[in-house]
Amino acid sequence: MKKIEAIIRPEKITETIKGLKNIGITGFTVSQVVGRGKQKDTQGVYRGKSYKVTLHPKVKMEIILSDHMVEPTIKTIIRAAQTGEDGDGKIYVYPILEAYNIRTGAPDFEIDDLKQGEIG
């Protein structure tokens, strides 16, 4: 199993979720985050006063899935979230050593409920 963390632009979340559903990924966690990368600072205005925006709003998606779904998931996220501009985000992939179902207490070896050959 692997964990994918994708940090993307907030305006790309709906398109990304649609793409993931199209390849059978329906389980994920989404958080609103702020961060800093190569994206340039911008100017904001609050109560008539200008200020520098150095942390940009982003969305973080966390997806735990079987190894065979990692590549199609990464390709789908890139296709849906890419604008070609600085600030499009990053994708990180981590190994998952163990997972457990809280309801049953049993180990969960196929967290995305997809087995090789049953995609589609």
How does this structure look, described?
The protein is of the alpha+beta class. The chain has two helices and six strands; from the N terminus they run βαββββαβ. It has helices at residues 13-22, 70-81; strands at residues 2-8, 29-35, 42-46, 49-53, 56-65, 89-95. Strands 2-5-1-6 form a four-stranded antiparallel sheet, covered by helices on one side. Strand 3 (42-46) and strand 4 (49-53) form a beta hairpin. It is elongated. The model is unreliable at 114-120 (pLDDT under 50).
Helix amount, in percent? 10-25%
Oligomerization category of the chains in this entry: single chain
Give the neighbour order of strands across the main sheet.
Answer: 2-5-1-6
Number of helices: 2
Question: What's the alpha carbon Rg, rounded to whole Å?
Answer: 17 Å
Structural class of the secondary structure composition? alpha+beta
The main β sheet shows up as:
4 strands, antiparallel
> Which percent band covers the strand fraction?
25-35%
Q: What is the β-strand count?
A: 6
- Average pLDDT rating: 87
In angstroms, what separates the terminal alpha carbons?
19 Å
**Overall spatial form:** elongated
Helix-strand pattern, N to C?
A: EHEEEEHE
Q: Are there runs of 5+ residues with pLDDT below 50, and where?
A: 114-120
Provide keyphrases for this structure.
4-stranded antiparallel sheet, disordered C terminus, alpha+beta, two-stranded antiparallel ribbon
